[in-house]
Amino acid sequence: MSDQTNDEQLISQLNRALGLEMRAEVMYAHYATYVRGIHRLHLKPYFETEASESFVHGNTVRNAINQLGGEAVTVRDAAPIRHTTNYKEMLEESLATEQLAANTYSNILENITENDELHDEIEQIYFAELRSVEEVSQLISS
Ligand SMILES: [Fe+2]
Fold it and tell me: Ligand 1 centroid vs 21 CA: distance in angstroms?
């Protein structure tokens, strides 16, 4: 594959990841607002932290797209965000969101073969998504 084609494919994958981060940011901010009941006390700050993390990840990905000479998307991924006030449903949505993010970054990493700095940056995000999958799984089973 030529370098240019490879870069274009990478930019398109990074844009998909960026759209997912923007979706995650909105979803977590929404759930932080609407989570009800006894679990609100710890889940509100948890969702807020996840929203901030998605924002930071999105910034990193956007900068990477710019570095590669690409144009970053400005619209979030179109997958609907399920409105609920039920914390269990929120955690299920969170798990699906984090698993998709982890898979997306895992695929991106396979395509970054000649840019160590970018590989490291994306790998840090990938590890963070894996930690989130682990964390949400524990919250669901507790
Ligand atoms: Fe993320």
Answer: 6
Closest-CA residue to 18 (of 141, 101, 110, 80): 101
Domains defined along the chain, listed by start: 3-141 (1.20.1260.10)
User: Torsion angle of alpha carbons 70, 74, 79, 81, nearest 10°?
Assistant: 140
**Structure confidence by residue, pLDDT tens digits, 53-107:** 999 999 999 999 999 999 999 999 999 999 999 999 999 999 999 999 999 999 9
Q: How far does residue 51's CA lie from ligand 1's centre (Å)?
A: 9
